[in-house]
């Protein structure tokens, strides 16, 4: 029953999306308000229908209804509740439904909160969102229907891929998808503006917060995915330059550029054409990522769809949406008027530099990811492009960006004073340099690692210099400094946090890339090994029963000197339903880094292979990402962004007259 | 208890997938072993999905790791080892594509993009050079006229 209801709701949603995509557009062209008024109501209705459909699929999973093919293929009655829910999107069909659900949610949000937009812009934006929904709903209904029935229904399901049976699956894809798909709002605004042929203040005030919100989710989603890979895959890697990771990283780079260029557009009315192009580009990268992951064109861990019909359908969507919007851009961008002049050394200039580097970096990732595919398609030659290529191209591009970054916020709009900014940053630069040199002299390690940590410190210290400067610390009485600190705009605080967060991540990356240690040995119970100043004792193995798996747990005691400081229990996990095995690493975080233990094979009598890794400062990588996202939240909470804020302020002022 | 532990480990031995680098592969000479690890990180496990032979637990990856170490022990240079493997498995095994004509676009693209972007930005900013600031300064006659008018008002 659920399956039919869900299928029916999805079909209806397609019909509604088609209405939403066409009639309001027509209405906007003819100036017909009743047709334009269809847009918000159809967006809300469409969201309700997709949500109903999604709930139906979740219900199928919760009830372990194996007469639904999708549930049979990816679930098992003994699976814990959380994986029954998250398993809904742990497969191709379900994850596409989640994708469309978020797309419909974005349209519903624009419908609900867009009342203060110019009527025609509002109608056009919603119509474009409707068109996107229609394309992807058609994709699901025609190639990836999650509600197909199976007869006779099997008694038991085939279980979810064990690697996916992890809390990470409940968090990582939804965060990532909200990030990906959230950029559809900026895209719809960009295309609507091109059709309308003009961009006004309302446009930038809308696009920036929604892009920022998507960026926050994408940042957290990527960080979560990285952390998940770190603890799940069993060898402590945190980023592999895997095509699927790149697929999420490209929209992040373009989205980061977008949230910066939108600032210029909002405050200075400049970079309009470029911002529109970035809004299109960011969502194009999101679609490209969806294509790469969903079509199975890449053979990588994440690609579980291999049906070529799907690949061609989604490629057609990609070509239509990206090609169409670029064509529109080429035809119409000339109509957008430019404003706001500025000198090269200025806040705007620094943001242009930021955009230049981020775009080139995004381009490098794009070429590296697609080159093997293109070369094979054109010449039949097979090559691989892996981590060494990306390290050699991406890192050199990022270094100038990081060096220049603290200067940007120190420069005023229009025309800046580079010397003054350099003076204000001299303490930060000195600190970073001394720290890097001291680290290299004392700790040894690689020069690159020390330089990377120095750059991270440069970003954090640069942020502190910025706070000192803005609060006039030491130049005015302390009470005045305090008042200035309290009065810092939330968007400024957000910017400072985001920049410092990048510094924190950078320190983590540099430390773990240059200072990681590993020991791979066969151990018998009672044996010890030394790593990073600690002694690890293997106490033995014991079985443990889980809800739908059996664990074989190794017990390790960590000592510093004679003092026990931690116990680590890595496991090998066998899933009962599928018989498949995963490695559950044991991780203990210390102040200086992580100790990471994972179990390998047995090796001779009584001995087992134990892999022990010391990962200095690695938690900083994800902590920094969280700080960056927190910066985004602060910026978003700035009162200027809150919907209706100007109106409220006006009413409050009224009695004073 | 010991028997149980022994049995459990035996169970692990029988069911477990072989994980990446194993203790019996590690070379005695730490310098050679380090070179082997560095090389392993540039070689793709061909039956896996985007994994290096260093990370992979596939039997083929183990064979390649052992092969790399054999060549190093035999005295090959790093390039000779890579060439040895490429001769047998093709360029597909290299995670760092060679600097060749075929890969020129790949290696050139990031920096070409940066250059093109920089040129576009510079041209764009130049074209929009600010107009001369304010009107032309007053001529001598105009200044004299202004002084006269101002003095008249007093």
The amount of beta strand of chain A, in percent, is 5-15%
CATH architecture of the largest domain in chain B: Orthogonal Bundle
Q: What's the SSE pattern of chain B?
A: HHHHHH
From the helix content, strand content and strand pairing of chain B, which structural class follows? mainly alpha
Amount of helix of chain A: 55-70%
Mean pLDDT of chain A: 89
Largest interface: A-B, 65 and 52 residues
Overall morphology of chain A: globular
Main pleated sheet of chain A: 6 strands, antiparallel
Radius of gyration of chain B: 35 Å
**Multimeric state:** heterodimer
Q: Can you identify the CATH class of the domain at 1-165 in chain A?
A: Mainly Alpha
Structure overview:
The complex is a heterodimer of chains A (about 650) and B (about 150). By secondary structure, chain A is of the alpha+beta class. Helices cover about 65% and strands about 10% of the residues of chain A. Among the domains of chain A are: about 1-165, Four Helix Bundle (Hemerythrin (Met), subunit A) (Up-down Bundle), CATH 1.20.120; about 425-515 and about 620-640, no CATH class; about 515-615, no CATH class. Chain A contains 22 helices and ten strands. In chain A, strands 2, 3, 4, 5, 6 and 7 form a six-stranded antiparallel beta sheet that branches. In chain A, strands 1-10-9-8 form a four-stranded antiparallel beta sheet. In chain A, about 55% of the residues are buried. With about 150 residues, chain B is mostly helical. Chain B has helices at about 1-15, 30-40, 60-75, 80-90, 105-125, 140-154. Chain B is rod-shaped and about 105 Å long.
């Amino acid at each position: 029953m659920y399956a039919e209801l869900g299928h029916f709701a999805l079909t209806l949603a397609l019909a509604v999306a088609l209405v939403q995509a066409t009639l309001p557009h027509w209405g906007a062209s003819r100036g017909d308000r009743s047709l334009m008024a269809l847009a918000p109501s159809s967006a809300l209705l469409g969201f309700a229908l997709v949500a109903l459909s999604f709930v139906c699929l979740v219900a199928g999973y919760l009830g372990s209804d194996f007469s639904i093919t999708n549930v049979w293929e990816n679930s098992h009655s003994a699976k814990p509740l959380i994986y029954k829910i998250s398993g809904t999107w742990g497969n191709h069909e379900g994850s596409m439904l989640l994708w469309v659900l978020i797309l419909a949610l974005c349209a519903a949000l624009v419908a609900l909160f867009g009342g203060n937009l110019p009527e025609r812009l509002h109608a056009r934006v919603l119509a474009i969102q409707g068109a996107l929904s229609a394309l992807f709903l058609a994709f699901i209904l025609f190639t990836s229907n999650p509600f197909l029935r199976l007869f006779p229904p099997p008694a038991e399901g085939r279980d979810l891929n064990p690697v996916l049976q992890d809390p990470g699956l409940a968090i990582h894809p939804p965060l990532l998808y909200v990030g990906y798909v959230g950029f559809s709002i900026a895209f719809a605004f960009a295309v609507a503006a091109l059709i309308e042929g003009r961009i006004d203040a309302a446009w930038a005030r809308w696009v920036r917060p929604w892009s920022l919100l998507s960026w926050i989710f994408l940042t957290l989603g990527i960080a979560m995915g990285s952390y998940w890979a770190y603890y799940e895959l069993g060898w402590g890697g945190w980023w592999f330059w895997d095509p699927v990771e790149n697929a999420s990283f490209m929209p992040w780079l373009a989205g980061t550029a977008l949230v910066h260029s939108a600032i210029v557009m909002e405050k200075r009315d400049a970079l309009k054409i470029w911002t529109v192009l970035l809004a299109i580009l960011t969502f194009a990268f999101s679609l490209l990522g969806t294509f790469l992951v969903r079509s199975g064109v890449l053979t990588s861990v994440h690609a579980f769809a291999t049906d070529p019909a799907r690949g061609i359908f989604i490629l057609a969507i990609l070509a239509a949406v990206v090609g169409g919007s670029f064509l529109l851009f080429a035809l119409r961008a000339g109509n957008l008027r430019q404003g706001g002049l500025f000198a090269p050394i200025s806040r705007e200039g620094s943001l242009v530099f930021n955009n230049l580097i981020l775009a080139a970096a995004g381009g490098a990732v794009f070429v590296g990811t697609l080159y093997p595919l293109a070369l094979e398609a054109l010449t039949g030659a097979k090559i691989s492009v892996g981590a060494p290529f990306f390290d050699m191209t991406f890192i050199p591009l990022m270094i100038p960006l990081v060096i220049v970054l603290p200067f940007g916020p120190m420069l005023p709009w229009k025309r800046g004073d580079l010397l003054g900014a350099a003076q204000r940053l001299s303490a930060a630069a000195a600190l970073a340099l001394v720290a890097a040199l001291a680290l290299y002299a004392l700790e040894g390690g690689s020069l690159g690692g020390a330089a990377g940590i120095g750059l991270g410190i440069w970003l954090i210290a640069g942020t502190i210099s910025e706070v000192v400067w803005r609060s006039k610390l030491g130049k005015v009485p302390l009470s005045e400094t305090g008042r200035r600190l309290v009065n810092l705009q939330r968007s400024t605080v957000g910017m400072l946090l985001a920049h410092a967060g990048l510094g924190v991540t950078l320190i983590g990356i540099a430390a773990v890339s240059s200072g990681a240690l590993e020991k791979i040995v066969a151990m018998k119970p009672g044996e010890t090994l030394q790593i990073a100043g600690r002694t690890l004792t293997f106490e033995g193995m014991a079985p443990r029963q889980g809800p739908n798996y059996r664990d074989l747990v190794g017990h390790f005691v960590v000592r510093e000197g004679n003092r026990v400081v931690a116990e680590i229990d890595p496991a090998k996990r066998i899933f009962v339903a599928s018989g498949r095995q995963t490695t559950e690493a044991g991780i203990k975080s210390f102040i200086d880094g992580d100790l990471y233990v994972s179990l390998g094979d047995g090796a001779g009598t009584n001995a087992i292979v134990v892999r022990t890794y010391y990962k200095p400062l690695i938690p900083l990588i994800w902590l920094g990402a969280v700080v960056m996202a927190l910066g985004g939240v602060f910026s978003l909470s700035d009162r200027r962004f809150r919907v209706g804020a100007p109106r409220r302020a006006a009413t409050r002022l009224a009695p004073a007259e | 208890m010991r028997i149980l532990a022994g049995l459990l480990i035996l169970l692990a031995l029988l069911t477990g997938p072989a994980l990446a680098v194993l203790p019996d592969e590690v070379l005695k000479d730490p310098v050679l072993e380090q070179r082997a690890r560095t090389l392993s990180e540039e070689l793709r496990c061909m039956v896996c999905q985007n994994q290096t032979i260093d990370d992979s637990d596939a039997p083929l990856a183990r064979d390649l790791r052992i092969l790399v170490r054999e060549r190093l022990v035999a005295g090959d240079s790093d390039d000779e080892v890579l060439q040895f493997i490429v001769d047998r498995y093709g360029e597909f095994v290299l995670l760092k594509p060679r600097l060749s004509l075929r890969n020129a676009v790949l290696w050139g693209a990031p920096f070409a993009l940066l250059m093109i972007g920089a040129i576009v930005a510079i041209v764009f900013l130049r074209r929009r050079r600010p107009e001369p600031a304010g009107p032309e300064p007053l001529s001598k006659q105009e200044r004299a006229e202004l002084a006269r008018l101002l003095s008249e008002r007093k």
